[in-house]
Amino acid sequence: MSNxxxxxxxxxxxxxxxxxxxxxxxxxxxxxxxxxxxxxxxPNGAGKSTAVKILTTLARPDSxxxxxxxxxxxxxxxxxxxxxxxxxxxxxxxxxxxxxxNLRLQGRLYGVRGAALDRRVxxxxxxxxxxEAARRPVKGYSGGMRRRLDVALGLVHRPEVxxxxxxxxxxxxxxxxxxxxxxxxxxxxEGLTILLTTHYLEEADRLAERVAIVDxxxxxxxxxxxxxxxxxxxxxxxxxxxxxxxxxxRVLLEGALGGLPGVHEVVFDGPRVSVRAxxxxxxxxxxxxxxxxxxxxxxTATVARPSLDDVYLxxxxxxxxxxxSGTADALVLAGGAR
Length: 338
Ligand SMILES: Nc1ncnc2c1ncn2[C@@H]1O[C@H](COP(=O)(O)OP(=O)(O)O)[C@@H](O)[C@H]1O
Ligand SMILES: [Mg+2]
Prior knowledge:
Elements: E1 9-17, E2 23-32, E3 37-41, H1 48-55, E4 63-68, E5 71-72, H2 77-83, E6 84-87, H3 99-109, H4 114-127, H5 143-155, E7 161-165, H6 173-187, E8 193-198, H7 201-207, E9 210-215, E10 218-223, H8 225-230, E11 235-241, H9 247-258, E12 263-269, E13 272-277, H10 280-293, E14 298-304, H11 308-316, H12 320-325, H13 327-336
Helix pairs in contact: 3-4, 3-5, 5-6
Residues 48-49, 89, 165-166 line the site of magnesium ion.
């Protein structure tokens, strides 16, 4: 029995280390209110899929606890499984079976039968624009169709909580937009709670009412996308240097730039310096002057309104793209841009 005032998902101090010593989760904590869309946002390798596996009872944590729909994932995994729908990062559909047969099989696994199953399958095929493809084997489906079927499979038994692990990764832009619309509609459905993971900043910004940024197995910050962006005063000014700075150069520049009027939060990241400024455009000449006096050559300077990328930089201490591609790749890209 789930309690409507209790969180739909609650994870406390989850720790998970894989054989070989990779600490995938390092004290992860999240709370998801019922009927909301919650985005777990982080770069590849941050621990998102591991968190989803634990919350959906497919893996056990080394320590920590979690409840889903009011049920303890370790003590009552069967109850949790009945209350949830799971769309894993990799499709779970049988490629040789038709779309309709996949849905029917999934329904039967959850004890939906007879006319109720027929109605539910038709309804989902219609809703996910798969009616015409229903009789064809899934292996002939496009990426977008396959992903829509995956979501339909997760919904057959009318779960209370739906887990979507990277629902749009690998989709082309058109299919991604269609999936966003679909998730947006699902979110409006009565009572359904959605926990989605994504490594797309834009996706979290667009779909999630609350976002938790996960970095190296722990949450670094949680809030609404707007509140997170709102915490960052003023504009972000990103200056691309011709060469990365050494430690002494950083210390010197931190003082020189941080002391400029209206400038705060100087962050160094490889060959890039980012600052926050009350008025970004007004701060650029002073910043460039200070860099020139310090003998540091500048490649480009850009001014931007705060984005979730800036939020990530502030809390995780490195740029999102760098965390995503690994430091080596980020440096190669920056080198190539020179
Ligand atoms: N079965 C596994 N065995 C060993 N290491 C794993 C396994 N699954 C994931 N990892 C590692 O754990 C970390 C987190 O992975 P994952 O949870 O898949 O992150 P994400 O979904 O955010 O990309 C990564 O470093 C990954 O390589
Ligand atoms: Mg993953």
